[in-house]
Amino acid sequence: MAGQGLSRQELIRRQRRNGFVGRRGELASFRDALQRPSEELTQFLFHIRGPGGVGKSTLVRQLESAAHEARAVTAYVDESVTGVVEAMTAIGAQFAQQGTPLKRFDKLLATYQQRRHEADAGAAVGQGPPGPSPSTAIVSRVGLVGMGMIPGVGAITGALDPNQVAAGAEQLRGMLSARLRSYDDVQLVLSPLQVLTPVFLQDLAEAASRRPWVVLFFDTYERTGPLLDDWLRDVLVSERYGELPANVLVVTAGQARLDPKYWSDWHDLVVDLPLEPFTEAEARQLLAAKNVTDERTIEVILHLSGRLPLLVSTLAEARPVDAADVGDPSGTAVERFLKWETEPARREAALACALPQELDEDVFCAAVDDPEARELYGWLRSMPFVIDRAGRCHYHEVVRTAMLRLQRQRSPSRWQEQHTRLADTFREWQVRLDDGTGGWKDERWRAFRLQEIYHRLCADPNTALPRALHDLLYVQDHDPAALRRWVQMLTRASRDVGAREVREWAEHLLTALDAPQPGAAAMTLLLSRATLDPAGRAYAYRLRGWEHIGTDEYDRAVADCTAALALEPESAPAYRGRGFAYHLTGRLEEALADFDRSIEYGLRDAWVLARRGETYRLWGRYAEALADFDCVVDIDPEAAWTIASRGQTYGAVGRYAEALADFDRAIELEPDSAWMIVERGHVLESTGRLEEALADFDRAVQIAPGVAWTFAGRGEAYRLRGRYTEALADFDCAVDIDPEAAWTIASRGQTYDAVGRYAEALADFDRAIELEPDSAWMIVERGSVLESTGGYTEALVEFGRAIELRPGRAVDFRYRSQVYRLLGQYEEALADVACALDIDPDNGWSLAGRGLIYRLMGRYEEASADFDRAFDVTPGNCWFHYEKAVVLHALGDPERDGHLARVVELVRAALSEEAPAEIADLGNLVLAYSAMLQREEAERALDDFLSLGPPAGRIGELMIALATQVRVIPEAGGNVALLRRRLEDALPESTPPALRELLRRDRG
């Protein structure tokens, strides 16, 4: 029994290759490259160029066949793709068909398509907002303000404002929560090329390791080049996405030279293959291969075709035996082709099938009138002017253009009738797919819609154009990546029907799509020039508003949504969009009002409820936030983002067990979500489970090592625990990743301040404030550093500026009051602390701060009263007890001993716990023993204090507190002098001279 032989298809391909005429030199240069070792190739990009009909696509097919003969895996891309992601998708699909799948890329691509669908649809419950995610620039503008505890002086120790810390933390976490699923998902949706391309190249390299060659063909490059040039250049010659294997060749084919904007520096890597029409000898050779030998017939064909390979082949296909079979030399080439086709059915089928933009068997049957002619689809596909790819085909542009012109001129009414019938057919197919939602979410439905609109434009451009422009709104809403494809359809329709207005619109829209924000530019054009009805204009305003949200232009987004509401006052989507813009700018009350209206007018969906819940959370209205989050979770129990947001809310109200349960569930659903893991770490930290918290921060860094906020979050945790070396290392990593993250830079500045590296601290605050000039908390922090270095005048300026920026914050008045106190300007200090108490009358730190000023002024009765009130608000504070004891000593009240004993009791109780000793506690213990005249105990406490390596600022604060003690308890002078000398000796070498001089003074 004979073995399995060649297939019929392979025999046909060989016959066609053997009959290929011309372009021998171009084909030979490509085959020569395939026969050489890849490492010797200096030119690996072949660019075929020439006018339409000159045979570029035919040569590409021959090169593809040659590549297959060399056992290459190949992929072909043409104008059917409208972007880089589509091009990579097409390449991956063709590689899989050849047994070389790009497995990792295909998996990541599937994830991208799913996440993109969720984001675009806006229906991914609890997974963040539809459309672009909030920019990291917003996140970097939010600060967590946590001042370190400073021993001895209560006004500084009390500068830690819990409300300030909580508000900053909640706002930062809220911004992170607005992201899609995990960090990787956000990057994938917002920057698909940066994420997909490296994986694509890794898989391409793996494929190249198993095959001698990988060859990528990009046909009709005059159309795809503007979309692919930048990416293809980076893939071929840079290391932006990774490295390309040496055995990868690329072939591009277009009408012009490669764009010098992208390729001028790389011409030495390009094999330029300019194609001209056939020479007369080549044309005669092809005609002889078709058995056309009559000289007069040959001359007529040469004249009619202009020796364009496509037309020479088309005219020779019927093997005319004399000139009469070709026709009148004065006619067109397409008329000659139809003249010698004697079967009317074939003739009419060939003409009718020029009308659709692309063909499959269903479209063929819809285009051809005669039922008997429907069997001719196979014949048509064999014609030389029909380009067949993956079961779908289209006419060569030169032939199709000629056929369309012929039919339009021959019978305008027949032209209109045929296009209308095709449009109606595509409309019927849409109806079959419509699931009741309008169809726009379905990719096949949108493809049918595009073809319908094309044929409507060809049939009656004036009537169809307004509808076509209105459809662009739906395309932008449901498939913005395809907007260019629809505009290209307008371009083709305008050319095919000769419609000037359609052509002008297409040109303007293409210009808009080349703008930095193409979606917004397209909507602006439609709003300014199209005759959209009020509903259409409202729709365009809403879409442009979402585009502005994606580029952080929130005021413009609000303006556009407001304009939409002026046209449609009950538009729930417009309220939703404006509410989200308000939400992102911190205008929470307005955001809530808009979300409420959106729900009132019918958009009570999970997305709006989740956003409203998040807004409630950021505003501190936790009960209402929990109610909304509960509703969302009832709708979708696997809404990981919402479950995590509910966990944040539970954490904010101290319901830590429920918070941890929610974060555990959310992370179970999204195990690689870095922000959820970071948030759980914060809750663990709040419950004292510090090692578990750090383990979460470590895991977040491992998951998202290229993300600044993962390092910054861990750095902040280290800073608040006093682990400054590790904190600085993390902040350094974060700043390296994002050099303009003002919050991270300022947090590093706080850490430098804590370890006494004041020059570096000031440099960081200077840079952070340069990035965020109106950040009051950063200005306050810089003032604190200036104060620590003895720069009191400069510190007063900074605190004054912060008060101007946020006049309703008590902590800023307390800061300035403290500086006035250190300068001995007690009246000014009292005025500021009075302002702080007007804002927050029951703040223990403000009361104790005023008590300290009264003590320094000798107004002991008033000081005592203030400390008593501070005890009522903040009981169990050891520094309050110390200051009360000093006041009672001045008043001669023996109860002072009880308060000093209470200081020792509180500190010893704290030291007996497993948590590390606090510098503040030990400083207060030194002060208490010194006041009790217990010199040895005071020195032992000082040993413990110094063993923690306190920074200069904290050493200085304890020195000042001891100096003020001697004024009231002179008998402690000897002990104090010894303690102060030891503290002065312990000052770091980096301590500024001005601060050293200040601390040597024996005053408060």
How would you portray this structure in words?
This protein has 1004 residues and is mainly α. Among the domains are: 8-121 and 188-274, P-loop containing nucleotide triphosphate hydrolases (Rossmann fold); 280-340; 411-532. 68% of the residues lie in helices and 3% in strands. It is built from 54 helices and seven strands. The strands form two sheets. A five-stranded parallel sheet has the order 2-3-4-1-5, with helices on both faces. The chain has a two-stranded antiparallel ribbon with strand order 6-7. It is elongated. The termini are far apart. Residues 8-20, 120-181 and 327-331 have low confidence and may be disordered.
Q: What share of the residues does DSSP label as strand, in percent?
A: under 5%
CATH architecture descriptor name of the domain at 8-121 and 188-274: 3-Layer(aba) Sandwich
Low-confidence stretches: 8-20, 120-181, 327-331
Can you identify the CATH class of the domain at 8-121 and 188-274? Alpha Beta
Give the averaged pLDDT, no decimals.
83
Global structural class: mainly alpha
Query: Biggest β-sheet, characterized?
Result: 5 strands, parallel
Helical element count? 54
Number of DSSP strand runs: 7
Provide the spatial order of strands within the biggest beta sheet.
2-3-4-1-5
Distance between the termini: 111 Å
| CATH topology assignment of the domain at 8-121 and 188-274 | Rossmann fold
CATH homologous superfamily annotation of the domain at 8-121 and 188-274: P-loop containing nucleotide triphosphate hydrolases
Helix proportion of residues, in percent?
A: 55-70%
Radius of gyration: 39 Å
Shape: elongated
